[in-house]
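User: I'm writing a short report section on ligand binding and want a predicted complex to refer to. Could you take this sequence and nicotinamide-adenine-dinucleotide and write out the structure as tokens? A short remark afterwards would be nice.
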Amino acid sequence: MLAGKTALITGSSSGIGLATAHVLAEQGVNLVLHGLLSESEGEKLAQSFIEKYAIKAIFDNADLRDANKINCFMNYAIEQMNGIDILVNNAGIQYTESIERFPDSKWDAIIAVNLTAAFHTIQKSLPTMIKKHWGRIINIASVHGLVASKQKSAYCAAKHGLIGLTKVVALECAEEGVTANTICPGWVDTPLINDQIAQIAQQQHIDFERAKYQLITSKQALPEMLSPRQVGEFVLFLCTDTAKGITGSALPIDGAWTAQ
Ligand code: NAD
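Assistant: Sure. The structure tokens for the complex follow:
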């Protein structure tokens, strides 16, 4: 059902975005891959998808902190692929520090990449989705879009904002065949959380695996991390016809983190 459609996944050079790209490519979905790789690394990545799945794939390394670069990226992708059918705003960054010591530059970067970039990509993708009367906008938020943790002021602000933005898009597009949802994962096994694990290991003089277990169980009832692929499979479900009534939702997959 999805074969021949095009998905643009920001931050698909790593972690959740890369796993989602594989899940969608398995269904014959063409891809706009993206992330902070060099041109040659990106081309290699796109080529590997073309060869493995016999789909069309292109790559761009626009820095999402820069609105002009996002605009160029989106114009290029829409022109090359004749519109975007599935938009996955996934790229994200993290920095942990108390509010009193939180650096301005980190605040600005987190808000730009985790929130403002999604505003720009949605605005650019919508006209062709509306024209085709079909579209899926899936924003990867976090449990931190629903609840807070200490030392994550910018991240929580951005993720709460992303959920609000998504609800408005869902309302405005409900009659246009376009759904908009956020997925709110708990801990997912990707490079994004390695700094937090390393910090615990250093502070408590314990090894990386022990620190990882401690991080997981400090928040989740389920004592294991999600795999990036589990998030990708959830994205795929939201693209199906079965899920066309799900819009404006913030959907946790969080090992009962937010059940407490
Ligand atoms: P990751 O670090 O593996 O991947 C991040 C991606 O974003 C990479 O492709 C990177 O190149 C890209 N990126 C970072 N800064 C960028 C910039 N300035 N411009 C363009 N691209 C940039 O991280 P991940 O864990 O796969 O995270 C993906 C999303 O999932 C993020 O939005 C994150 O907040 C969210 N999330 C992650 C977890 C987790 O536990 N890993 C939990 C909940 C939500």
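A remark for your report: The CA atoms of residues 12 and 174 lie 27 Å apart. The chain has eight helices and seven strands.
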